[in-house]
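Backbone geometry:

***
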Amino acid sequence: MAAQQSDPSHYFPDTGHIVSGEFWTYYQSISNAAFVFGSPITEQFTDTQSGRLIQYFQRSRFELHLENPAGQQVVLTNLGPNVYKHSPPSGSVNTFTPIGCRYYPDTSFSLCYAFLEFFDQNGGEAIFGKPISPFVFYNDRIVQYFERARFEWYPEYPDGQKVVLAQMGRMYFDIVPEDANRLQTVKAENAPGDVTSIQVRVFTWKAQTQLDDQQVVYVVVQDQTLRPVVGATTIVTVTWGDLSRQSSAQVTNSSGVVILPLTVTGQPHGSQVVIETEAMYMGKSDKATTSFRIW
């Protein structure tokens, strides 16, 4: 699975999707990422609820938080509470002992025995979060829910393989529900190696706006042959006339375009609004700048 740290993106042939940009950088930083996250089951896309760039994996979901410091912008979604809510158990098991368990007072649940050993060996709280359930029965198996995972017990498996991670990413995808079309595999022409360079252009609907007005920013990403680049990550940073800034990350649509509406309000008369755009796709990047004035 793993490519070298220098690789800017990676195509996963088992699921037919690409991980790139900050998500790929984070994925590579986790030594057992293929095991704890699995392979991607979607491309990157903008979540309609949060407005954040996200990507689903078999056992997790990545979110891009541009407001966080560099190196901390990829956050794992807390999938556990929602999946637990929609998957009622058939009973619970009280297994707590002072010696074999670790108690989490802020969630009031304990982590015990083989689950505790698996937890500590595979990333702990940083990857899985804290336990949010006791040992419960689900589909006749003992499982335990965490903020970002579900551990399942398979006693019939060999030693060292008896704890299995549930496909939480796919479960959450179905529960939300997301658009099933996002599960479609990437076409061969979009796989790595096809695009050798990209160019980004950015322009606005209006060259100038009124003090209280609506504006639209258009970002177009094309490859070396001027074909639209689908699924490119774009980061648009707007510096307003009062020097406040806002950033938005989105991926290009089937036409290689991102459309970003802006509401203009409370800005100084005659000020210039600067729009800086960076586009990234499979290790290729390009930048462009435009602006408009407020009258």
Observations:
- Helices lie at 21-29, 33-36, 80-85, 113-121, 124-128, 168-175.
